[in-house]
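Could you help me review a protein record that somebody else here produced? What it holds is a sequence and that sequence's fold in C-alpha cell form. I need someone to confirm that the C-alpha cell line plausibly describes how this chain folds. Take the sequence as given and treat only the C-alpha cells as open to question. This is what I was given:
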Amino acid sequence: MKEVFLVMVICGLLFGVASFMMGPTTPETLQAKYPSWTTAECERVYNHEIWLGMTRTMAFESLGFADNYNRSVSSAGTRVQLVYRGGCNYFRGYLYFQNGRLTSWQD
C-alpha cells in the first residue's frame, strides 16, 4: 500500500512540474501548438478522450506517455501497440495504431 501511495505522489509531482514548465493546457493552447487539428479534436484531447482515427500525437497529448511501445512492420504497413498501465495517466489498456491512426483499443 505504501508503494502505491509513493508512486501516486511521484506521478503527481512529475505532472505538476511538467504542467508548470509547459504552462496550462487548454483547447486553445492545443490549437496553437497543432494548427492542423480541428477545434473538436482539441476539445477531445483536452478532455482526455480516445477515438478511432486519432493520431499517436493526439493520444500522447490526451493520455500522456505510454508505459510500453511495441511496433511491427509488414507489407500491410506499420502497426503500433501502446500499453498504458494506469499509473500516471488517465487510461489503463492498449491502443492499436495502423499507419499512424488509432484503429482499435482494449480497456
